[in-house]
Amino acid sequence: VQLVESGGGLVQPGGSLRLSCAASGLTFSTYTMSWFRQAPGKERESVASISNFGRNTYYADSVKGRFTISRDNAKNTVYLQMNSLKREDTAVYYCNARRAVVYDYWGQGTQVTVSS
Question: According to the model, what pLDDT value does residue 84 have?
Answer without folding.
Answer: 98
